[in-house]
Design brief:
Blueprint lengths: L1 E7 L4 H15 L3 E8 L7 E9 L11 E6 L2 H7 L3 E10 L13 E5 L1 H8 L5 H13 L4 H11 L5 H20 L18 E2 L5
Parallel strand pairs: 1-4, 4-5, 5-6, 6-7
Antiparallel strand pairs: 1-3, 2-3
Helix pairs in contact: 1-5, 3-4, 3-6, 4-6, 5-6
């Protein structure tokens, strides 16, 4: 599976990709390779990471046609959504991305991950919320493997917060899959075609 996670500095894009790769390679026994790129080093600069996950050794470490794109900013969605292959999945940060038309043949899921993280108490865990959501939607790794990878990557005093963030994202993803229209916020992504699913932040 070819995966790209992209956004801007401060959203935890690189850490999220590292955690997902660790979940695959260490905890799920798969093969994984990761590459990353940054824009300006200052906080807020564009950044993205590519992750290839396979049950066989990875021979080419770069995304050519993404199976999954997680876009956490408008720039990321605009730049990388054309590379998502037909039948692929586009996951966007609902409050930060506006798009008129998704790529042909691509399933789009959206989540207000930043808002959900703020409601948990710290915006910094937005990446973990989104990671849980993306994992529930794609099934790229097992939930237990992902939790183990998250807890091994964060400081001990933040373990409980990150566990809650992960659980919130996973549950939102499961809800979307069970009922794609549940929690739809009309106009959240104006003009999108039918078949786009979203999950609402808990009340």
């Amino acid at each position: 599976m070819e995966i790209r996670i992209a956004g801007f500095g401060g959203q935890g894009v690189i850490l999220a990709t590292q955690i997902l790769g660790r979940a695959a390679a260490i905890h799920d026994g798969l093969h994984a390779t990761m590459t990353q790129s940054f824009g300006p080093e200052a906080r807020g600069g564009a950044c993205s990471a590519q992750l290839i996950v396979s049950d066989e050794p990875v021979l080419y470490p770069y995304v050519t046609r993404a199976d999954v794109l997680v876009a956490m900013s408008q720039e990321a969605c605009t730049k990388f959504s054309p590379e998502v292959k037909p039948g692929g999945i586009l996951i966007v940060e609902q409050d930060l991305v506006r798009m008129q038309q998704p790529p042909d043949g691509v399933s789009v899921f959206c989540l207000p991950a930043t808002r959900m993280a703020e409601e948990l108490g710290k915006r910094v865990v937005q990446n973990i919320v989104m990671l849980g959501f993306a994992t529930a939607i794609t099934g790229v790794v097992g939930e237990e493997a992902l939790e183990n990878a998250v807890l091994s990557a964060v400081p001990g005093h933040l373990a409980d917060l990150n566990r809650k963030a992960l659980a919130a994202g996973l549950e939102a993803g499961r809800t979307c899959l069970r009922n794609p229209s549940s929690g739809m916020e009309t106009g959240a992504i104006p003009g999108l075609a039918a078949g786009v699913a979203s999950a609402r932040a808990p009340a």
